[in-house]
Amino acid sequence: MRGKAARSAQALAAAARRRRRLEAALPWLVTAWMFLLWEAAVRLFGIEPFILPAPSAIAESMIKWWQPLLTNSWATLLTTFVGFAMAVVFGLLLGVAIGSSVLVYRGLYPLLIAFNSVPKVAVVPILVIWFGAGFWPAALTAFLISFFPIVVNVATGIATVEPELRDVLRALGARPVDIVTKVGLPRAMPYFFASLKVAITVAFVGSIISETVAANEGIGHLMLVASSRFDVPLVFAGLIVTGIMGVLMYWVAVTIEDRTTGWATRGQNDPRLAAGG
Hints:
mainly alpha; 0% strand
């Protein structure tokens, strides 16, 4: 009986190991299949490179133009990181203020919604007038487009602390500041990290939008120059490099989340839980 139980436990452990290996390999397999289907479709239907280049043509362009891609991707990454860092600080502080006070919520939330509804590409020319073309318009556009999800999620996390818990803490002598710092902020951390994974992706959108309008470097500027020469493989190379940078930044946010708020999932390892925003 004991031998049968031991074999059953070993079988379950082996199945768990196989599942973990499959989960680790699955993103690579899906990505590889997507590029293979893309390559096959382009060759099968004879699509011209200036309409839709094959992955092989994009790879050739990346090898040919690796130095401009590296230089411009670093510029985009730097502006995006600066704008994203400002969004984290400002969004966290404003989210705490909105989630902690009904008066602040009533006063600021309509203004935030109205501002977030404004297309950021329309704000870029104003930023260029104020700061000139280059680094700061791109960084500020990344900031403007990414801070709103952080504000909303942090405010939601703090505002959803149960009223009964607040009453108990007040009865025990806790001040409003204590309730926010010791209960509200820990409660908001899963919401905060969920918003980071949304904000980091849209921050790249903001940087590239600004770089296509007014910049002399960056992936957006590179793609604009390439499209003016009808070098579509280089345009797609810029898109792929941007996607890779977004995945890397997302992975950093997930890694920090796992190390700081792993308690929030109570041991559940379903990655779909990390896709909220």
